[in-house]
Give the backbone structure.
Amino acid sequence: MERTIYPMSKLKGEITVPGDKSISHRAVMFGSIAQGDTRISNFLFSADCLSTISCFEKLGIEFDTDQAGHSVVVHGKGLRGLKAPSETLFTGNSGTTTRLISGILSGQDFVSRLDGDSSIRRRPMNRIITPLSRMGADITSETGNGCAPLVISPSTLSGIDYISPSSSAQVKSCILLAGLYAEGKTYVTEPVLSRNHTEIMLPCFGAEIISEKTDRGWTAAVTPPSSLTAIDVNVPGDISSAAYFIAAAMICPGSELLVRNVGINKTRSGFLEAAMMMGGNIQILDRRTEGGEMTADILVRAGSLHGVTIGKELIPSLIDEIPVLAVLASYAEGKTVIKDAQELRVKESDRIETTTAALGAMGVNIRPTQDGMIIEGGAPVHGAAIDSCMDHRIAMSMAVCALAADGPVTIKDADCVGISYPSFYTDLQSLA
Ligand code: S3P
């Protein structure tokens, strides 16, 4: 489906964005292997999180879902309670589902096969196959190209001390989950701390996890528990979804917007830091913590922006927000350099190419580099027809870009926003 987004004069009022995608996935997974009923409120009912639920249904877990009430009850069966699936576990477009569930499946006494859509079939899985194999897992890429479909057969796992070459929460979480089923402790070290929702939430279910800065980077360690126990999880609003509205209010003159209940965990909030570095008028109000995750309300006003350099340590905490940061850079005076972000090449799409193609089509002076992009902002941005390349974050970023452009922007395959934010366009419309 194609959708046309028209320029908007200003955004006024307030909005509450849906629940966090990363946290929703984890609540379903950990709840499934815990004993008892895990009650999840403010769950994100999006295609990706529904892929996780559907995989665990095939593994014998029952769910009570209330989409209108944004809640899910997971009837967990305990660490050893999953059943052999009778068909392939389909993970759709979700890298988080594919990589995290592989850690759990490596510890089971049955064979499982994982597959996903055409994007998942292109995404690198050797980053989990290598460490899981070192733990003793029997996991193979069916076609031998290091991508899904993956076949996981029973084996005995032992704890390892793994140094991850990149900061990836999916890799880290996959290894920690396999570590629940291993003999001995499992350690994962990453160069910069990536999103730490697993390290925060698993201990609430009763697992012993240590996370600390060491001379090698950031190390997380898990001790295999005898059981996990169900809990209640209240999912904070997703900062990755909030970022679109914050950016929209920053670039549409006269805007003043309050975004309520946004998760601002330090490992996720790099977007706010980068937006403030660009001169963004952002206030973080009413900070509070629940279940170890910090949330706040965010007040944003339009103002003039300037180019910045974004790289190094900041990248993991804003990796999913780079397309929308490139949109901000398009409206900022001067040069913005985004570097050290080669991970963008292996996301739902190659986001270095898809972001530069879309913004380039709107007349933005942007060029791709091997590990990021360079944007000369401040010139008028034009209406155009662009391709989302079936990437939800490209579709939403370009919808935001359209709001301050000098003409309408037509987005191809605009409905891919359902991967993380099904009501995105209606929510945007409500602020007009
Ligand atoms: C996620 C981790 C990140 C992020 C993705 C969600 C997670 O991926 O980009 O959208 O929930 O663990 P990587 O671990 O590949 O960096």
The chain has a mean pLDDT of 98. The CA atoms of residues 349 and 389 lie 7 Å apart.
